[in-house]
């Protein structure tokens, strides 16, 4: 095929019109509404379109990355403040002294003695004990159990990380504070 011979336009199928009637009444930009185009022009326009599309996609991905980084930085600030508040709350928390709490302490101490736990007992063994024997009461006395594990086994049973827990229910307050 000679390069000077026109071929049917691949974009509009030779009709000179596209389905995008809201742009210049649907006139095909590749063949300028004629329906026929030179093969060289098809290659040039196709290559330009690929470059434009790749550039647009790269710009979109960059904006998406920047937006994600901004969101992550914002939420890291929020979670850091909640973690700080959780730590302050936990440090100042006074263990319950109700009848139920006293019974819980007694049961934990008794179970620890029966299982032979001491300061050298691993964290996994202590967590297993709480999960197996105190699952129903642990939800209510989780901070007391954490104080116990911190005192006798050198680890905190609950996670004080702001991403996991919010003991002071301050999520909205912290978000409003950081947005200012």
Secondary structure elements and pairings:
Elements: E1 7-8, E2 36-37, H1 39-92, H2 99-115, H3 123-133, H4 135-138, H5 142-153, H6 171-179
Antiparallel strand pairs: 1-2
Average per-residue pLDDT, rounded, comes to: 84
SS strand fraction = under 5%
Shape: rod-shaped
- What is the overall number of helices? 6
Low-confidence stretches: none
At a glance:
This protein is mostly helical and 180 residues long.
Structural features:
two-stranded antiparallel sheet; mainly alpha; rod-shaped; about 180 residues
Structure description:
This protein is mostly helical and 180 residues long. The chain has a domain at 86-179. Helix content is 59%, strand content 2%. The protein contains six helices and two strands; from the N terminus they run ββαααααα. A two-stranded antiparallel ribbon has the order 1-2. α1 packs across α6. It starts with 6 loop residues before the first strand and ends with a helix.
């Amino acid at each position: 095929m000679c390069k000077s011979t026109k071929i049917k336009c691949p974009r509009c199928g030779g009709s000179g019109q596209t389905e995008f009637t809201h742009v210049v009444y649907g006139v095909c930009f590749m063949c300028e509404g004629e329906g026929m185009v030179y093969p060289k022009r098809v290659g040039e326009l196709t290559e330009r379109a690929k470059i434009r599309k790749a550039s647009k996609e790269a710009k979109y991905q960059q904006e998406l990355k920047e937006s994600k980084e901004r969101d992550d930085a914002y939420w890291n600030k929020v979670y850091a403040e909640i973690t700080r508040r959780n730590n302050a709350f936990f440090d100042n928390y006074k263990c319950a002294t109700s009848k139920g709490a006293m019974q819980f302490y007694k049961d934990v101490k008794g179970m620890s003695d029966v299982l032979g736990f001491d300061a050298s007992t691993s964290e996994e063994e202590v967590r297993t004990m709480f999960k197996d024997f105190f699952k129903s009461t642990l939800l209510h006395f989780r901070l007391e159990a954490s104080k116990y594990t911190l005192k006798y086994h050198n680890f905190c049973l609950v996670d004080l990380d702001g991403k996991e827990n919010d003991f002071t229910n301050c999520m909205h307050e912290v978000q409003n504070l950081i947005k200012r």
